[in-house]
From TrEMBL:
Keywords annotated in UniProt: Membrane, Transmembrane, Transmembrane helix
Name of this chain's protein: Response regulator receiver modulated diguanylate cyclase
InterPro entries linked to this entry: Diguanylate_Cyclase, GGDEF_dom, Nucleotide_cyclase, Rev_trsase/Diguanyl_cyclase
Membrane-crossing residue ranges in chain numbering: 12-35, 42-62, 68-89, 101-122, 128-149, 161-181, 201-220
Lineage: Bacteria, Thermotogati, Deinococcota, Deinococci, Deinococcales
GO molecular function, one term: diguanylate cyclase activity
Top-rank taxon: Bacteria
Residue ranges annotated for the GGDEF domain, each copy included: 268-395
CDD domains: GGDEF
Length: 410
């Protein structure tokens, strides 16, 4: 059969449709990546994917008249495209190849292309040519496989999209194996247009790489964007409900946590403690705000350490802190005793400054502001009464935990 007659056969028509489809998808992706720039590596991936797909297509549609062009241009595009894909995934993962590494990859690619030309133009050596191209591609695929497996472990949120990209690359390689073997074994180049199984599998590989590859890399970008939006939402949520200096809940966050405690059920009442640092204004004025901030952070760490599951600790502003104790009475008494020993010099392991606190009973449905005022009044009443005593050797009247619990319960 005259090969020229194949251009008017149904197989040639199917091949033309395949050419147009793959070329259109590649051009579309190139246009989208330039029109809508995204993460690093986005444009490089589009160029690399187009190079690999079009190179495979040119290399597969090989006739005696187009053999030289098919071998050189097809393999050249595949080699260049694979190098760009590796660089694109590296940049997308946050890697920045050094100038030395880029020069090394560039020289390796240039040397491989020169050797490819010599093994095609100067002396037709299909086996050596196949080995040369295969080694270059295996090195790139190995590096890409290592990178993707590392990113799957490092970024679990993107693991699914990375696996999809990896699966498509492996599937494309498997689909082209029969066609590669057919060419290596010396089958007639005119069979390139025949609807044989190797040719059909290769056509499927083109579509998989062009369409599936575009979808897979787009999915990787969208998963990363979604994860960044989720992280940003979490950060905004933290900024809206957390005090930036101490990390405790702010006023809004404390109210939200208190409402959640009321909605959970359980004990009908809790104990609300209100704290402030003794002489905080004088400390700031005389010793500086940096030391004042250190004291605020230390008190916050103390409250966070004392709090148990279900308790709520927060900073309302300035040196005013709240601690909602929601456990059983024995646990609350132990927590208050621990706070007493840590907040007053001479009572165990003081923080280096003293802080006063008062307690109020807080029942479900009570006004938080009312409970805060009640605890505040109790705190200032204790300050006015000089309790607990600030002496290195505390008097027997100094322990305050049982008294605080009894007054809060009354």
């Amino acid at each position: 059969m005259d090969p020229s007659s194949l251009f008017f056969s149904p197989e040639a028509l199917l091949g033309g449709v395949l050419w147009l489809t793959v070329t259109f998808v590649c051009l579309l992706m190139l246009g989208l990546t330039w029109w809508r720039p995204s993460y690093a590596g986005w444009r490089g991936w589009a160029c690399g994917n187009a190079g690999v797909v079009l190179g495979m297509l040119i290399g597969a549609l090989r006739t005696p008249d187009t053999r030289l062009t098919s071998v050189l241009l097809g393999n050249g595009l595949v080699l260049l495209g694979s190098a760009l894909l590796l660089l694109a995934f590296t940049r997308f993962a946050g890697g920045r190849p050094t100038r030395r590494a880029l020069w090394g990859h560039g020289l390796g690619l240039f040397g491989t292309l020169l050797a490819l030309g010599a093994l095609t133009v100067l002396s037709d050596q299909p086996t050596a040519r196949f080995a040369l191209v295969s080694v270059f591609l295996l090195v790139n695929k190995g590096a890409l496989l290592h990178l993707v497996l590392r990113e799957i472990r490092r970024t679990p949120a993107l693991a699914g999209a990375y696996r999809l990209n990896l699966g498509l690359l492996l599937l494309t390689a498997l689909l082209t194996l029969p066609r590669t073997w057919a060419l290596l074994s010396g089958q007639a180049p005119a069979d390139s247009f025949m609807p044989t199984l190797p040719n059909l599998l290769t056509a499927l590989a083109f579509l998989t790489m062009a369409v599936g590859g575009a979808f897979a890399f787009w999915a990787l970008h969208e998963d990363r964007r979604r994860e960044e939006v989720r992280a940003l939402h979490g950060e905004l949520e933290r900024l809206a409900h957390r005090d930036p200096l101490t990390g405790l809940l702010n006023r809004r966050g404390f109210r939200q946590a208190q409402e959640q405690w009321e909605a959970r059920g359980g004990p009908e009442a809790a104990t609300l403690l209100v704290f402030d640092i003794d002489g905080f204004k004088t400390m700031n004025d005389r010793l500086g705000h940096a030391l004042g901030d250190d004291c605020l952070r230390a008190l916050a760490a103390c409250l966070d350490d004392v709090a148990r599951e279900g308790d709520v600790a927060g900073r309302m502003g300035g040196d005013e802190f709240l601690l909602l104790l929601t456990g059983p009475a024995a646990q609350i008494e132990a927590q208050v005793s621990g706070l007493t020993s840590r907040l007053y010099p001479g009572w165990g392991t003081p923080l280096g400054f003293s802080a006063s606190f008062g307690a109020a009973r807080f029942r479900r449905g009570d006004s938080l502001d009312g409970a805060v005022r009640q605890a505040d009044e109790a705190m200032y009443a204790r300050k006015a009464a000089g309790l607990p005593r600030r002496s290195p050797q505390p008097s027997p009247a100094a322990p305050v935990a049982p008294a605080l619990i009894r007054s809060a319960a009354s």
